[in-house]
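Researcher: Checking consistency across runs. Here is Reverse transcriptase Ty1/copia-type domain-containing protein again:
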Amino acid sequence: FRVNDLGALKYFLRLEINHSVDGIYVSQHKYYLELLVDSRMLGCKPCSTLMHSSL
């Protein structure tokens, strides 16, 4: 079988892969942005929630 080089990996299983001189960074920025748009929460403001520190 033949194998093709598709270049540097950018997206895999909803993970965004960024290559730099310092290393490889993995994030889900695109996924959670999509999630916020789909749920119509993109314009919402974050708020803090109190929680016991022992949890």
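Researcher: Does this match what you'd expect to see?
Model: One thing to look at in this run: The beta strands are 11-12, 15-19, 24-27.
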